[in-house]
């Protein structure tokens, strides 16, 4: 697929939407709508057999949802993934990690968005005060036993695709350990 041109159709501090003119392999022309958002970090805070989740209102869905802490740098800025993960963990939960391991990369919605995420496992955790952004003022944070997390996923109580995929990366990481 060849890009023939692009135009921005919308922009705000968190994302841009663009429309690209394309030429397909068979020579026909078309358009492709793309949502550009900065890369994000998702953090799995793990303390023994419990994980820390955050709950917040997700406006597009009109519901509150539990998920792993995750986020992007302000104003669509590029950020070092490890620094971003450290900041997001502190902002949303107040936790500080003595150890962070990158588990993998997730593509949010590759058919419509350029956004990618890096998943980190945070251990050797120390409690502290959260530093939430204004948009996160309704956020809650709690520890859950892993069995409860898995039950919440199975019951459809946790539906955040990134959190479910990240948990799969954690399971694969643990499976690969001797």
Tell me about this structure.
This protein has 178 residues and is α+β, with helices and mostly antiparallel strands. It is 21% helix and 46% strand. The protein has 3 helices and 10 strands, in the order βββββββαβββαα. The protein has helices spanning 81-93, 146-154, 161-176; strands at residues 2-12, 15-23, 29-36, 40-47, 50-58, 63-67, 70-72, 96-107, 116-126, 140-145. Strands 4, 5, 6, 7, 8, 9 and 10 form a 7-stranded mixed beta sheet that branches. The protein has a 3-stranded antiparallel beta sheet with strand order 1-2-3, with no helix packed on it. It is globular. The model has no long low-confidence stretch (mean pLDDT 93).
The strand count comes to 10
User: What's the SSE pattern?
Assistant: EEEEEEEHEEEHH
Structural class: alpha+beta
Count of DSSP-assigned helices = 3
Percent strand equals over 45%
Shape: globular
Mean pLDDT: 93
**Largest sheet at a glance?**
7 strands, mixed
How widely separated are the two ends? 44 Å
Residues in helices, as a percent range: 10-25%
Low-confidence stretches: none
Calculate Rg over CA atoms: 18 Å
């Amino acid at each position: 697929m060849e890009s023939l041109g692009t135009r921005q159709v919308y922009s705000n501090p968190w994302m841009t939407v663009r429309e690209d003119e394309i030429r397909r392999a068979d020579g026909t022309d078309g358009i492709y709508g793309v949502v550009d958002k900065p890369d994000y970090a998702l953090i799995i805070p793990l303390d023994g057999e419990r994980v820390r989740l955050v709950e917040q209102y997700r406006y597009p869905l009109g519901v509150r949802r539990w998920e792993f802490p995750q986020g992007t740098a302000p104003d669509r800025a590029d950020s070092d993934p490890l620094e971003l993960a450290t900041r997001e963990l502190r902002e949303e939960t107040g936790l500080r990690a003595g150890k962070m391991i990158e588990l993998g990369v997730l593509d949010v919605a590759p058919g419509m968005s350029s956004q990618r995420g890096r998943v980190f496992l945070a251990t050797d955790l120390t409690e502290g005060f959260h530093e939430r952004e204004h948009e996160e003022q309704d956020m809650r944070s709690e520890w859950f036993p892993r069995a409860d997390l898995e039950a919440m996923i199975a019951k459809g109580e946790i539906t955040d695709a990134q959190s479910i995929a990240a948990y799969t990366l954690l399971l694969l990481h643990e499976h690969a350990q001797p």
